[in-house]
């Protein structure tokens, strides 16, 4: 494909999504990563788009674009009891007066039920967690500025320098779409960027995932497993995944599924 045509396709893609990744453009255009990155760099200098880590975004991003992945309301109905058990094990790591950060997701959101008796400083981009903690806990709650994405129940800031850059916590809790030897995966680049802002802003990083997440795959990598300190999952995890976690140097906490 000619350079002019590639540029036309790239600009069309960034106008329909908040962020377009290099990997996506490689698939669409059939060009190499080096070519795509060179095109993005050129268009960025021309002021036609904005280069961001791993891709590009529109100068005036669409305001009504949905995030990739299943809606929060659907995920909330999947493996509910398992997620609650994982969330409770996560809260068992906490004590009064700790500062924590919680990234949005249905498993991390289940933590709020068990945090009601604790007095914590909490930064979260989960609208659900913030709402529950404000109403039913003693916790001090901070949320980032940004847009509330109703389908995923999270608040995402479009600004590179927001409150996350001025916060440090004892523990960061995150969920994920998938986990394997390549690292912790998500479905949408905006969610990846939001978590990456937080990943180095805590003494410990704790990953909450039910065992089905070890079967999921995505091209969006948040971080390698070696950056995670603790992985909490259920006893449905397979031996191969256990070895992957342990070889990455993570502490593994396994929660027993409730018997029906």
UniProtKB/TrEMBL annotation:
**Has the keyword Zinc been applied to this entry?**
no
Q: Which Pfam families match?
A: DeoRC (PF00455), HTH_DeoR (PF08220)
Record domain HTH deoR-type: where: 3-58
* Cross-referenced PROSITE patterns: HTH_DEOR_1 (PS00894), HTH_DEOR_2 (PS51000)
For this UniProt record, give its keywords in alphabetical order, as a comma-separated list.
DNA-binding, Transcription, Transcription regulation
Q: Could you tell me which InterPro entries the record lists for this protein?
A: Carb_Metab_HTH_regulators (IPR050313), DeoR-like_C (IPR014036), DeoR_HTH (IPR001034), NagB/RpiA_transferase-like (IPR037171), Tscrpt_reg_HTH_DeoR_CS (IPR018356), WH_DNA-bd_sf (IPR036390)
Task: Give the GO molecular function terms.
Answer: DNA binding
- Superkingdom to which the source organism belongs: Bacteria
Classification via PANTHER family: HTH-TYPE TRANSCRIPTIONAL REGULATOR SRLR-RELATED, HTH-TYPE TRANSCRIPTIONAL REGULATOR ULAR
Name the record gives this protein = DeoR/GlpR family DNA-binding transcription regulator
- Write down the species: Marinomonas rhodophyticola
Q: What is the lineage of its organism?
A: Bacteria, Pseudomonadati, Pseudomonadota, Gammaproteobacteria, Oceanospirillales
